[in-house]
Amino acid sequence: MKHSFQKRFTSAIDENFETVQPFYDSRLIVMVELTNLRNEILNCLLLGLYQTSIFSTNHFLERLIKVSLIKNHTQGFNYSNAVAYNEKIEESKILFDSLVLAESLKKAKQEGLITESEMTELTSLRRKIRNPYTHAEISKINEGSPKSFKGFMFSFEDVKHKLINKEKLELPEITEINTFSPTFAQLQQEDNSKIIAFNYFKKIYDLMLKMENRLSAKK
User: Fold this and answer.
1) Phi, psi angle pair for 44, to nearest 5°
2) What sign does the CA torsion over 124, 128, 129, 135 have?
């Protein structure tokens, strides 16, 4: 079993390394606290764990927005004056920690941390990716995928019997199965996740770099 895992992950690394390598090398300054979280997402992409990458990117997005709000609220305060800094941190906890994503995005826009166009795009991502994956809304995750699957249904025992006895195999009627069926739905989710995972991460990461610049400009 260990060998099969090694073979699979080595193949995935060979396929994905050049795509994700520049992001490992990117150095975060203002958002340095998010480095390890970023790297965990990159590890998922590197190993071909695309669904897990999306789940983690969902958290990355929410944490990014809240960290930016906290840093914006605590501008000018640091550990050199622990009492004042702790007061501002406690205020941040009360103001931001319980916000849902729609609320934190609205607040970030009000504070000039994201633009109107970014707000629009993030709202779209929230509805099309974040919410469906978070709430396991499979029909939204697989929107655009075929709604049904057609094929022939055989009995393995019947086929085996006829082959052994050299009897003629007759094609049964075509069967149509709704792809909301868990087996097909999960296969579609896997395929769709592979398509969108990297671009989803890249959009959020590129946004973070812009937000770093905006926070730096406020100092």
Assistant:
1) -65, -45
2) positive
- Residue type present at position 36: N
Work out the pLDDT band at 154, boundaries 50, 70, 90.
Answer: low
**Predicted confidence (pLDDT) per residue in 36-77, tens digit:** 999 999 999 999 999 999 999 999 999 999 999 999 999 999
Q: CB–CB of 156/180 below 8 Å?
A: no
176 - beta bridge partners?
150
CA–CA gap between residue 214 and residue 32 (Å, rounded): 15
Cα radius of gyration rounded to whole Å, the chain: 24
Query: pTM for the complete prediction?
Result: 0.88
- For the chain, domain boundaries: 2-148+183-217
Q: Read off the DSSP letter of residue 183.
A: H
